[in-house]
Design goal:
alpha/beta, Ubiquitin-like (UB roll), 3 domains, 6-stranded antiparallel β-barrel, 5-stranded parallel beta sheet, 37% strand, globular
Length: 325
C-alpha cells in the first residue's frame, strides 16, 4: 500500500463501550503511543469483518489532555459496510489496532466568526471544535441537525455547555435544517465547518457556490460511507495490470484492489483529498460519487472517481474499467 503520509500504528485497549444515542456507541480506548489531540482529528482502526481485517476512520470525540485515552462514537447505519457492527461488538478489555491521530479537518484560528454544522453523527467531529471555541471566547454558532432527538448523540451535554450558541434542528419535530436560510445568515469573513451525510454537504456546497462565497471559507468532512444509493457489489477491472476484482458491498474499491495486490495511492481514505483518484475507461452502470473533492461538473463527467469511497451502482453486477495513478 502506498500513502502520502507517515502513519504510526499503535495498540489500543477498549476500556468502555456504551450507547449514547440510538444506533450510536461511544468507545473509549487507551492507546500505547499517546500524542496530543487537536479538534477535528480522527484515527483509523483495523478490525476484522467476516474474518478479513478492514480499515475504518472515526473522528475523535474527545481525549484526555495527554492523549492516552481517546473516545470515538460509532454509528451503525443501514449502509454501514460491516466495520460499525464490529466496532459495536467491542467490549472492555478487547484489543484493537489504531493509528495516532491525524487531522485533515483542522480548526483554523483567526476568523471573526465560526459556524459549525453537524448532521447526525457528524457531531463527533464538532464537539472538540465547539468546546475549544467556547473556551477561547470566540464568536461561534453550532448548528446540530438530526432526524430525531433519540438519534442525536451528546445533545443534552451540548445544550448545557453552549446555551444560546447552539441551534438544534429536528426533522421529526417539523423543524428540519433549512440550508438556504443557514447560508443566507453567513457574514463576510465567517468560516463554515460542516460534517454530516453526503446530502447535507452537497446542499451546502451548491448553495455556497451559488452565493459566490469564498471557497476557502468552507471546510467539510465526510463519513466516507454516506452515499446517494445503497452499496451494491460491482466489478472493477484494471486492463493495464490484467486485474479483475469483485468489490463487495461491505468494502471500498480501494480496499478490494489492495487485497488483490494492486499498489494504490491514497491519503485520507474518506473522499476528501483526491489522491486515490482513478480514471474511468468504461462503465456499466453509474457512479455514486461519495466524495467532497470533486466539483459538480467533474462528477457529471463520469470520467474519474475517488476509489476510496465512490461506487458503481444502477445495474446488477455493474462494472468499471479504470487506470490507476
Amino acid at each position: 500500500m502506498a500513502a502520502s503520509h507517515s502513519e504510526v500504528w499503535q495498540d489500543g485497549v477498549v476500556v468502555l463501550s456504551r450507547p449514547v444515542a440510538q444506533d450510536i456507541v461511544r468507545i473509549e480506548i487507551d492507546v500505547s503511543r499517546p500524542t496530543t489531540v487537536d479538534p477535528g482529528a480522527h484515527v483509523d482502526v483495523r478490525i476484522p469483518v467476516a474474518g478479513v481485517p478492514v480499515r475504518r476512520s472515526y473522528s475523535i470525540v474527545d481525549a484526555t489532555p495527554d492523549g492516552a485515552r481517546i473516545a470515538l462514537s460509532v454509528f451503525q447505519a443501514e449502509t454501514s459496510r460491516g466495520g460499525a457492527a464490529a466496532m459495536h461488538a467491542l467490549q472492555p478489555g478487547d484489543r484493537i489496532e489504531v493509528t495516532q491521530p491525524r487531522n485533515d479537518f483542522p480548526l483554523r484560528w483567526g476568523a471573526p466568526r465560526y459556524v459549525l454544522v453537524a448532521g447526525g453523527v457528524g457531531v463527533t467531529a464538532m464537539l472538540g471544535m465547539a468546546e475549544r471555541l467556547r473556551s477561547a471566547g470566540a464568536d461561534y454558532r453550532l448548528v446540530y441537525a438530526g432526524r430525531s432527538r433519540e438519534r442525536m448523540a451528546y445533545l443534552d451535554e451540548l445544550v448545557t455547555n453552549h446555551g444560546d450558541r447552539i441551534d438544534v434542528r429536528v426533522s421529526t419535530e417539523g423543524d428540519p435544517l433549512d440550508v438556504d436560510l443557514l447560508l443566507d445568515g453567513i457574514r463576510p469573513g465567517d468560516e463554515l465547518y460542516v460534517c454530516g451525510p453526503i446530502r447535507l454537504m452537497d446542499a451546502v456546497r451548491r448553495g455556497w457556490t451559488a452565493r459566490g462565497y469564498p471557497p476557502t471559507d468552507v471546510r467539510m468532512e465526510t463519513f466516507g460511507n454516506s452515499g446517494w444509493f445503497a452499496p451494491q457489489p460491482f466489478t472493477v477491472r484494471v486492463p493495464a495490470l490484467g486485474a479483475e476484482v469483485l468489490v463487495g458491498p461491505e468494502q471500498s474499491m480501494l480496499e478490494a484492489l489492495e487485497e488483490a495486490g494492486v499498489d494504490m495511492m491514497y491519503d485520507c481514505r474518506k473522499g476528501e483529498c483526491g489522491l486515490c483518484e482513478v480514471r474511468v475507461l468504461s462503465l456499466a452502470g453509474d457512479i455514486d460519487h461519495r466524495d467532497v473533492f470533486y466539483s459538480e461538473r467533474q462528477k457529471d463527467a463520469r470520467s474519474k472517481m475517488c476509489c476510496c469511497v465512490s461506487r458503481v451502482v444502477g445495474v446488477t453486477g455493474g462494472t468499471v474499467e479504470i487506470v490507476t495513478t
